[in-house]
Specification:
The protein is mostly beta strands. The chain folds into two domains: about 1-30, no CATH class; about 40-140, Avidin-like (Lipocalin), CATH 2.40.128.30. The protein contains two helices and nine strands. The protein has a nine-stranded antiparallel sheet, with no helix packed on it. A hairpin with a 2-residue loop joins strand 5 (about 80-90) and strand 6 (about 95-100). It is globular, with a radius of gyration of 22 Å.
Amino acid sequence: MVTKGFVRRMIAGLAGPWMLLAFASPAAAQQPSTSAAKANPAYEKLKGRWLRDSGGYTIEIRSVGPGGKLEAAYFNPKSIHVGKAQASQQGEMLKVFVELRDVNYPGSTYSLAYDAKSDRLVGRYYQAVARETFDVYFVRLKP
């Protein structure tokens, strides 16, 4: 049985690699370029350990991936599972969204903005169990 892949390889061998472009699938042609999939360099400012003003709550942003996906951890003081962590940018403002998914944290969220002047994350915490929202801020912990 002859497959499309086999035919493409045979044509490429006879006519040159540039011919493969003529046979590329529409889905392959619509793939984002590698540079478009890279993380926003501005997000690098978000990396680090952040301590909340009240209590021993800590967010650790370990890395920022393509599309603003954050590798993040949350501690109170023990580790609490992070269901989702995302960075975004609106104009000059960097934002951080963290959703917690653990015992006593069934969908509690942080919606924060990075304040470059004070090097803080400032915003709101929604405590899902109590259904209450609190104004909060986090200061960067020095390594």
